[in-house]
Design a protein that fits this description.
This is THUMP domain-containing protein. Residues 42-153 form the THUMP domain. It comes from Natronomonas aquatica. The structure is a single chain. This protein has helices at residues 12-23, 41-50, 69-77, 81-84, 104-123, 174-183, 201-210, 231-240, 257-269, 307-320, and strands at residues 2-6, 28-31, 34-38, 56-65, 90-97, 136-143, 146-152, 191-194, 249-254, 276-280, 289-296, 322-330, 342-348, 351-358. The chain is an alpha/beta fold. It has a 7-stranded mixed sheet with strand order 2-3-1-4-7-6-5. Strand 2 (28-31) and strand 3 (34-38) form a beta hairpin. It starts with a strand and ends with a strand.
Length: 360
């Protein structure tokens, strides 16, 4: 079956690599932040307890070219709605990109009407609509003349992590942290240092990945609600997953005791207190010896110190030590005193950010 997966915009290649590794999928970009691929139900179950770069997995119900809203209705009505959806309340999220006379809301409304009409014709039941907290979430994408309708299989987003009991003022999304580690080529045998670790998202994601630990052990996907999916099967597969023994060398540094305490709380919540060293160190002064240095550089929004001075002092530490690969997220790459060897442009909330790669 055809599947979609959402991820961070600009990092679709990282998601595609993970899909190939986990389920052998050959994924391509559907549009920014969404990849498409072929898979089966076992793949869907596996992705929901193993994927680290994905936010949601969705099953495609309809896909085709359209000229207007009647084509949206026609494609939706031909999607075997009564067989694919349960007798439960639903909501439609419409997303539109391109030049059209119609709006995203128009697309969502037309999909919703087609779902109601088709389900009622097949079963005699009118499905209720809940736009705020639906049992079944449908995603309707219109990109230029391509219309794709998919049903969400995930529910609560995969990017959320139960270990995050202490939040940094500017928290880093876990899936971005994992993508940065992949860009750095990190594996369990490497020494990893995060010199500005904050609440330790990057070190914890490194430890979870290095030991092949399940990133979302608390997840309860939509499998109980949707026809053709088996919640018991998913839980059995998840329970059978055995982490790999790994000897990890991961250091989370921060100069502020407040964030070191926060990092320790999160490491303990993740069951990784023994795997990650939380160290007092000032990134402007401390030398670094590591295979990988991966960090989220301060953006300046909640930092009182001069960013240029901070970046300059920190960049001087990299060649002074022994660092093989350096990857950082920043909104001010122009303040770095070196030219990155690679870069990834990504949206970061309302900001535009850059993941920079450097090999000293």
């Amino acid at each position: 079956m055809r599947l979609l997966a959402t991820t961070n915009g600009g990092l679709e290649a990282i998601a595609a690599e993970e899909l190939a590794e986990l389920v052998g999928a050959d994924a391509s970009v559907h549009h920014r932040g969404v990849v498409e691929f072929e898979g089966n139900r076992e793949d869907v179950y596996a992705l929901h307890y193993r994927a680290r770069s994905l936010h949601r997995v969705m099953a495609v119900l309809a896909d085709g070219s359209i000229d207007g809203l009647e084509d949206v209705y026609r494609l939706t009505a031909g999607a075997a709605i009564a067989e694919r959806l349960p007798e439960a309340d639903f909501g439609v999220v419409g997303t539109r990109h391109g030049t059209h006379e119609l709006t995203s809301m128009d697309v969502a409304d037309r999909v919703g009407q087609a779902v109601i009409d088709t389900y009622r014709e097949a079963t005699g039941t009118r499905l209720p609509v809940d736009l705020d907290d639906p049992t079944v979430r449908l995603e309707a994408y219109l990109y230029d003349d391509r219309f794709t309708l998919a049903v969400d299989l995930t529910g609560d987003s995969l990017h959320k992590r139960p270990y995050r009991i202490c939040e940094h003022d500017a928290p880093l999304r876990s899936t971005i942290a994992y993508a940065m580690l992949q860009i750095a080529g990190y594996d369990a045998g490497d020494r990893l240092v995060d010199p500005m670790a904050g609440s330790a998202t990057i070190p914890i994601e490194a430890a979870l990945a290095g030991a092949d630990r399940i990133p979302r052990p608390d997840l309860d996907p939509m499998f109980e609600a949707l026809p053709d999916y088996d919640g018991e099967r998913f839980r059995a597969l998840r329970d059978e997953h055995v982490p790999e023994p790994a000897s990890l060398d991961i250091e989370a540094r921060d100069r502020r005791e407040k964030w070191r305490r926060c990092a320790r709380e999160n490491c303990e919540a993740a069951g990784l207190s023994e795997a990650i060293d939380v160290v007092a160190a000032d990134a402007r002064e401390a030398s670094i010896d590591a295979d990988c240095v991966v960090t989220n550089l301060p953006f300046g929004i909640r930092v009182s110190e001069d960013l240029r001075a901070l970046y300059t002092a920190f960049c001087e530490r990299l060649p002074a030590g022994s660092v093989d690969r350096f990857v950082a997220l920043t909104t001010a790459p122009e303040l770095l005193s070196f030219e990155p060897t690679d870069r990834y442009e990504i949206p970061y909330g309302r900001l535009e950010a850059t993941i920079v790669v450097y090999e000293p």
